[in-house]
Amino acid sequence: MHSSWFSYPITRPFPFRWFTPVAIVGGLILMVLFTIINLASSAFYLKPIFTDDPNGTTTQSVRWFMKAPLNWDNNMKVQCQPKILSVGDRVFSTNLGFQYSVKALTSSDDDSDFRETYPSIAYLNNTLEDCYLTRVDINLRKSDARASNSWWLSWITTFTDATASCNVMTSEGLVNITLGVEYTGQSDHIYDYVIEDDYKTHASTWWGTRLLNVYFTGILSTMSQTQDLGDDSYWMTGGITFTTNPNIKDIRDPKLFNLAGWFLSSDGFIQNEREFLLPTSLSYG
User: Which residues are listed as membrane-spanning (predicted)?
Assistant: First the structure.
């Protein structure tokens, strides 16, 4: 018997009468939900901004749409690019005083066997803590060959090195930063070795530079008046070292620093004292 090639299926209503409206409404809800998730995860532009409080920025800038499940791949997390602080970099503090050189970066561990040395660290503008002066070296240098007493300019090439130590919290944990600074007393009335010298806004820095210049010029003047050693010899160079005494915390205590000095004359005579002794006829007050 001949059968037709054409046919049609027999259909009947789905047994659950609310399937169609539920499927349509559910599909619309899922479409809206997936659209929101897609917008939150990829439909935005990252805009870089500059801030002086990176730690506060990362903790206070988290919005509701940056969290799961809207931001499922966590690509809207606020991140701050740190300053890479390396040994040899020149830095200055918010006090706008000296410009320091980073001399060493080490982990702040009391046990030297577990102490690590870093070539660089990621710095997020954290406050430097527990800063203290560790050592000051006054390097005395005579600039002429005059044997008799002269003016303080005869020792104008004298310079000073100072070393300080600070702790700072980083991604590596607590890190100790060793900072160094050099001071040259080219004049008793020039204060350009500090960044800001305004007595109205930085009074402590302003006053400190005046005291430092007067003290430094006083050392040069005293050295220029101690040249009469006889036989045409004279003090040619020397060094005065101030090392911080860790057991003394009061800056008014005369024993705050352990002092030592050495002096070399033009004829090769060396005066070397562990306790601070200035050369013959040189007084210290």
Answer: 18-40
Name the more confident of 243 and 34.
243
191-203: pLDDT as tens digits? 888 888 888 998 9
In angstroms, the CA 259 to CA 140 distance is 15
Whether the CB-CB separation of 165 and 179 falls below 8 Å is answered with yes
| Two structure tokens written together for 122 | 């990621």
Q: Give the mean pLDDT of the chain.
A: 80
Six-digit token pair at 278?
Answer: 């200035």
pLDDT at 283: 38
Which of 175, 169, 166, 170 has its CA nearest to residue 108? 175
Contacts of 132 (CB under 8 A, 6+ apart): 164, 165, 244
